[in-house]
Amino acid sequence: MLCGKGFLDTTRIASGAPSVWHDILMENSVNTDQAIARLVKELTKIQRALRENNGKALTKMLTRAQEQRDTLVARKLRRKELPE
Predict the structure, then answer these.
(1) DSSP secondary structure of the chain
(2) Quick check: 84 pLDDT over 80?
(3) Contact status, residue 32 vs residue 25, Cβ threshold 8 Å
(4) Per-residue pLDDT at 4
(5) Are 37 and 21 in contact (CB under 8 A)?
(6) Tell me, what's the pLDDT at 1?
(7) How far apart are CA 24 and CA 72, in angstroms?
(8) Three-state SS across 19-30?
(9) Where does residue 80 fall: left (phi above 0), alpha (psi -120 to 50 degrees), or beta otherwise?
(10) pTM assigned to the model
(11) What is the pLDDT of residues 38-61, one digit of tens each?
(12) Among 44, 73, 75, residue whose Cα is nearest residue 61
């Protein structure tokens, strides 16, 4: 399997003990369910744009994601929650 550092970073918690994550997910099942539903909705939008060859919609989604991430990083830097 070929993957880069980004994949390893985003899947790091999968190395944690299943029993710990079981408890976390069960304790937060309602919020987790809602987050999964939102993720599925967003992924479906991306899938639809790809299937319809709708580059404009895809670019709009990617731009929005970039803006949201930039806002999050800026906030974390202001609060000194991230190294500069």
Answers:
(1) ----HHHHHHTGGGGS-HHHHHHHHHHTHHHHHHHHHHHHHHHHHHHHHHHTT-HHHHHHHHHHHHHHHHHHHHHHHHTT-S--
(2) no
(3) yes
(4) 82
(5) no
(6) 63
(7) 24
(8) HHHHHHHHHCHH
(9) left
(10) 0.75
(11) 999 999 999 999 999 999 999 999
(12) 44
Tokens 């408890």 correspond to what residue? Answer: 23
The structure tokens 């899938």 sit at: 47
Rounded distance between C-alpha atoms, residue 38 and residue 48, angstroms: 15
Locate tokens 């944690």: which residue? 16
CA nearest to 58, candidates 69, 68, 45, 70: 45
Q: What is the CA radius of gyration of the chain?
A: 17
22: which 2 tokens? 């079981």
